[in-house]
Amino acid sequence: MGCPLIQKVTLAAFMLSGEAGIWWQGALQRMIVAGTQVNWENFKQLFLEKYFPRDVRHKKQVEFLELKQGENFVAEYITKFEDLVRFCPMYDDVGNEEDKCVKFVSGLRPEIKQVFNYQGSLTIMNW
C-alpha cells in the first residue's frame, strides 16, 4: 500500500469497526498500561492471535507447502498460490523472490515445467 510503517497502526485501527474496533481500544489500553510499544509488529501479533488463530495459520502454511497444480489450469494454480503464499513469511518476502519462484515451478505439472528453461534469476513478475 506504500504506507509508512509508523502510520500503519493508525490506518489499520481506523479501518476496524464494530467488535474489532472495540477489541482494539481495549488492546491499546492494555498495551499502554503495560508499557508495550504500540507499533506495527505488536499490532499484527495481537490482531492475528485474536482473529486468525495459530492452528488456522499453520493449516494454511501446510496447504501452501503441499500445493500442486494438479488438474487445475495454470491461472487457477497462480490464484491459489498467491492466496496461500502470504501465510508463509519465508516465501512472502521480497528478498526471497527466487525461492518463491522455485516453489511455484515445483508445483506445476511436469509437462508444463518442461516449457521453462530456468536460467539465472526468476521472479513471479516474469509470469
Automatic annotation (TrEMBL):
Q: Does the keyword NAD apply?
A: no
Q: Which UniProt keywords apply?
A: Signal
Location of the Retrotransposon gag domain: 11-110
Q: Which domain of life is it from?
A: Eukaryota
Which stretch is the leader sequence? Answer: 1-20
Give the protein name, as stated in the record.
Answer: Retrotransposon gag domain-containing protein
> Which organism is this protein's natural source?
Cajanus cajan
Q: What is the lineage of its organism?
A: Eukaryota, Viridiplantae, Streptophyta, Embryophyta, Tracheophyta
